[in-house]
């Protein structure tokens, strides 16, 4: 490139950058009007909130007294997250086998499976939680079912991709040899995708642990319920300890999940 | 490729794999046995939910709001999603540049990544509720609280996108004496732009869903709050249905956009 060409290219890039930034600024201002968001209030909220947190959002002796209760509720939430992930993984794997383009179970199956998965993941977990709350009340089943449906939606999509990508060649080889559907899937698909399935499952569990607090808050179960209880009764030191416990649990799980995924794949 | 993946029967990775599946299965079975269903009739509850779902999806109707108000609620929630995406993205670009291992020092990358995983370990709803004590329930608390997660998520995604940029271009610019800022402006950002856009849109999709959740769980307003009122106060299934449909349509549209961007980006050879 000549010096002149470089300058022209640079100018053009600069123009696009200015245009892009102007567009972002316009969209931001428009959104602020629609959402009734005040920039000054927003900026002021930061130092105010952190000063408040440093002074009041600190566990005290009374909060530590609640610690066993917090751990029990946290444990319950972790268990429910694992349950939802496991059952969703099982169902999603079956759906993926039926819906995958490689395994070719039935032409209609693929469309149905994809529609079910899309419904599961595109309706937010809070909506599912409110829906199940109507019949299942404040039991762990409400949160379990909401997390299960959401996870099923995401895992089915991931598993479909995994099965499609991982097994095309061996499937074709066995199909050419006239192998029936079930043994074909058992021998050509299942063994090669198991590590990826486990990896997605661990990833889903991380997501679910985070969502579980939200779902618990809405449905009056688990650690979310306990946080809400302390928060609404203005028992901020205990709410702080609850938050701290969640943070430690999420970080531990994330670390463990990373280590496991690295050694599986 | 061979028929089945040749795997030593007791290799370390297959033992760990088996262990992972075993623990998941054992905890799940244990949970079903031990957790308290508070004496509800599970069969009846499933039957009830089935009936509810039919009403919800097939007979949606709005009683407490007009179509215009519904559109307003969705617009409010979308606006929350947009704002928090932009507010997260701007500092995340700077943070992502500093945290990219090919652009900044390794220790800084470690520190920044540890910092954002700490931020992300606090569930969004807790950030919003904590901020609401100082700022009051509403847009400000929701925007500030949600921005935390946006920032953390995008910083990690951006820094990885920067690391995928062709190292040769960066080296060539450095060798010709270019400053850090011109390496960024000439190579790092242009080279990763499709990837950055794809991640940002993906986060916008997530933020829309989060904004629905914050409306329902943290009084942030918008369509999420309508949902909470319809299901939690009025117990109006047909209205829950109408709101669910509205959310579903927007979310599916956003997902389609995000997928298209992601695939276009993958085809053009950018970092996924």
Characterization of the model:
The complex is a heterodimer of chains A (265) and B (272). Chain A is mainly alpha-helical. Chain A folds into two domains: 3-56; 66-264, MetI-like (MetI-like fold). Chain A has helices at residues 3-34, 39-56, 61-65, 67-99, 107-122, 125-136, 140-166, 168-176, 181-219, 222-232, 236-264. The longest helix of chain A has 39 residues, at 181-219. Chain A is globular, with a radius of gyration of 25 Å. The mean pLDDT of chain A is 90. Chain B is an all-alpha fold. The model of chain B has no long low-confidence stretch (mean pLDDT 89). Chain B has one domain (60-267): MetI-like (MetI-like fold), CATH 1.10.3720.
How do the strands and helices of this protein lay out in sequence?
The complex is a heterodimer of chains A (265) and B (272).
Chain A: H1 3-34, H2 39-56, H3 61-65, H4 67-99, H5 107-122, H6 125-136, H7 140-166, H8 168-176, H9 181-219, H10 222-232, H11 236-264
Chain B: H1 12-34, H2 42-58, H3 67-99, H4 106-121, H5 124-135, H6 139-163, H7 167-175, H8 180-217, H9 223-232, H10 237-267
Helix pairs in contact in B: 2-10, 3-6, 3-8, 4-6, 5-6, 6-8, 7-8, 8-9, 8-10, 9-10
């Amino acid at each position: 490139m000549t010096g002149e060409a470089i300058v022209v290219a640079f100018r053009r890039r600069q123009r696009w950058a200015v245009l892009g930034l102007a567009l972002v600024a316009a969209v931001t201002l428009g959104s602020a009007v629609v959402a009734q968001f005040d920039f000054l209030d927003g900026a002021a909220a930061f130092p105010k909130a952190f000063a408040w947190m440093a002074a009041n959002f600190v566990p005290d002796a009374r909060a530590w007294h609640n610690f066993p209760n917090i751990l029990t509720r946290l444990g319950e939430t972790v268990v429910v997250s694992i349950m939802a992930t496991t059952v969703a993984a099982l169902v999603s794997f079956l759906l993926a086998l039926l819906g995958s383009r490689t395994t070719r179970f039935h032409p209609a199956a693929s469309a149905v499976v994809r529609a079910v998965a899309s419904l599961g993941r595109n309706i937010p977990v809070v909506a599912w939680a409110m829906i199940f709350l109507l019949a299942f009340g404040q039991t762990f089943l409400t949160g379990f079912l909401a997390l299960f449906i959401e996870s099923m939606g995401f895992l089915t999509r991931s598993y479909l991709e995994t099965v499609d990508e991982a097994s095309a060649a061996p499937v074709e080889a066995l199909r050419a040899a006239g192998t029936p559907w079930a043994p074909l899937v058992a021998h050509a698909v299942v063994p090669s995708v198991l590590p990826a399935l486990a990896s997605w499952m661990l990833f889903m569990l991380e997501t679910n642990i985070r969502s579980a607090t939200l779902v618990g808050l809405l449905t009056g179960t688990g650690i979310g319920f306990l946080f809400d209880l302390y928060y609404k009764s203005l028992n901020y030191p205990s709410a702080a300890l609850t938050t701290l416990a969640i943070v430690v649990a999420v970080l531990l799980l994330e670390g463990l999940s990373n280590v496991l995924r690295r050694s599986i794949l | 490729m061979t028929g089945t993946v040749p795997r030593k029967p007791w290799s370390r990775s297959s033992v760990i794999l088996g262990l992972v599946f075993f623990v998941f299965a054992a905890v799940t079975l244990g949970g079903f046995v031990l957790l308290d269903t508070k004496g509800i009739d599970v069969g009846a509850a499933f039957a009830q939910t089935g009936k509810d779902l039919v009403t919800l999806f097939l007979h949606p109707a709005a009683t407490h709001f007009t179509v215009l108000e519904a559109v307003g609620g969705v617009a409010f929630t979308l606006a929350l999603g947009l704002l928090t995406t932009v507010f997260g993205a701007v500092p995340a670009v700077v943070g992502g540049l500093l945290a990219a291992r090919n652009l900044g020092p390794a220790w800084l990358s470690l520190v920044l990544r540890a910092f954002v995983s700490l931020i992300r370990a606090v569930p969004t709803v807790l950030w919003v509720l904590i901020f609401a004590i100082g700022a009051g329930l509403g847009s400000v608390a929701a925007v500030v609280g949600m921005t935390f997660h946006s920032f953390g998520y995008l910083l990690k995604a951006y820094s990885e996108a920067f690391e995928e940029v062709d190292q040769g271009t960066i080296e060539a610019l450095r060798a010709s004496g270019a400053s850090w800022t011109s390496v960024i402006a000439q190579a790092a950002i242009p080279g990763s732009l499709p990837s950055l856009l794809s991640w940002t849109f993906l986060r916008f999709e997530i933020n829309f869903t989060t904004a629905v959740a914050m409306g329902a769980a943290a009084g942030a307003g918008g369509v999420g709050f309508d949902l909470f009122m319809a299901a939690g106060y009025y117990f109006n299934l047909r209205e829950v249905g109408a709101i669910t449909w509205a959310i579903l349509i927007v979310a599916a549209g956003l997902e389609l956009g995000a997928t298209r961007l992601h695939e276009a980006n993958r085809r053009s050879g950018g970092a996924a």
